[in-house]
Amino acid sequence: MRRHSVIHTPKTSDYQKLTEIWESSVRATHDFLPDSYIERLRNLVLTHYLDTVMLICTKDPHQRITGFAGVAAGKVEMLFIDPQHRGQGLGRQLLRYAVEHLNADELEVNEQNPQALGFYLKQGFEVIGRTEHDGLGQPYPLLHMRLRSSVGAGLSDPTKSHSTEMGPGLTAPTQVQ
């Protein structure tokens, strides 16, 4: 379990790989989404959503992207880890960077994704609200979460939490959860 200690900024030429990671992560964790909806969202991720956020990523020693996050207006809009690299601390590393360097303190997560919800709760986020539908109006409830103010510094301490990396999808208006 080698930790990827450097956060990178992906290029537009990386969008195809980011979309592949998005899809494999969603298929591994969002079993409540039908294939037709995943295909619809995949196209939106590739052609629209990635351009709407500040992207950061992790890479393995061979410089292959292993996970990524997107942040806009203080909100983590997406965080996905390649399923082959889960459990290595990458999600936590990306989230920590988003909080500490991109001032992200809010996110949304699918209520039907208990692994992601558990991850964010362990990282110091709390549920502050709920909607019945995702950003595309589909019946996939979202939980609105905010970082507890006393947790920001603790998020950077690797001894504070060990958990499975998961992530939310995109939030309104670019909902993918």
Automatic annotation (TrEMBL):
<keyword id="KW-0808">Transferase</keyword>
<feature type="domain" description="N-acetyltransferase">
    <location>
        <begin position="5"/>
        <end position="147"/>
    </location>
</feature>
<feature type="region of interest" description="Disordered">
    <location>
        <begin position="153"/>
        <end position="177"/>
    </location>
</feature>
<keyword id="KW-0012">Acyltransferase</keyword>
<dbReference type="GO" id="GO:0016747">
    <property type="term" value="F:acyltransferase activity, transferring groups other than amino-acyl groups"/>
</dbReference>
<dbReference type="InterPro" id="IPR000182">
    <property type="entry name" value="GNAT_dom"/>
</dbReference>
<dbReference type="InterPro" id="IPR016181">
    <property type="entry name" value="Acyl_CoA_acyltransferase"/>
</dbReference>
<dbReference type="Pfam" id="PF13673">
    <property type="entry name" value="Acetyltransf_10"/>
</dbReference>
<protein>
    <submittedName>
        <fullName>GNAT family N-acetyltransferase</fullName>
    </submittedName>
</protein>
